Amino acid sequence: MRRVFGAKKNNDPPPSIQDASDKITKRGDTVEEKIKKLDVELSKYKEQIKKTRPGPAQEAVKARAMRVLKQKRMYEGQRDMLYNQTFNLDQVQFATEGIKDAQQTMSALKSANKELKGVMKTVNIQDIDNLQDEMMDLMDVSNEIQETLGRSYNVPDDLDEDELMGELDALEADMGDETEADGVPSYLQPDKESDFDAELNLPSAPAGHTAPGRSNAQTEDELGLPAVPRASLRG
């Protein structure tokens, strides 16, 4: 029949590394569950051995415990073998993904290199240098324009700075003469003669009376003004 009709071809894709790794990991988990059950059974036999007196009964319990222990060792060997296979598959998958990433990186670099070459063809270094020189010249011209517009009018350029400093010092000296040590100008200082009278503490003459010893002194009215003699008023 196969010679006449031919055998059916299997067109299913091969399993991936991830599929194989997941399958082996699942088998390892199943073996791990069996080992845990055997551990529980060994714990029971251990308690029975402690409670049983030495003799045929204790030896029978030890034999069963030995059988379970052998099964546990066998399953542990299978589990370790499956986990080693999973580890190897993970390493292969990591290497494969690294190669794929390297291929993508190379493709991106080639595309960027091609694009960069196309852009560099449109750029001329000499044009950039000329543009920079032109910009510097324009900045110099702009500075000159600003300086020209900021120039002051009617200010002579041939002034002697030493002469100006001398006039400034003289002005400060004049201002210092007008000001006493306490910082009050001389025209605001009290009169020296009034200060002298205050130091003598002389009493002032009464208003409207003639000072003793002075026959020619004039009398003053209630406002402090010199009083006019009555004889002059009659005439």
UniProtKB/TrEMBL annotation:
Annotated InterPro entries: Snf7_fam (IPR005024)
Database matches in Pfam families: Snf7
GO cellular component: multivesicular body
Chain residue ranges for the region called Disordered: 1-28, 173-235
Coiled-coil stretches noted in the UniProt entry, renumbered to this chain: 99-148
Keyword Cell inner membrane: no
Ribonucleoprotein listed as a keyword: no
GO biological process: one example: late endosome to vacuole transport via multivesicular body sorting pathway
Keywords: Coiled coil
Family: Belongs to the SNF7 family.
Protein name: Charged multivesicular body protein 5-like
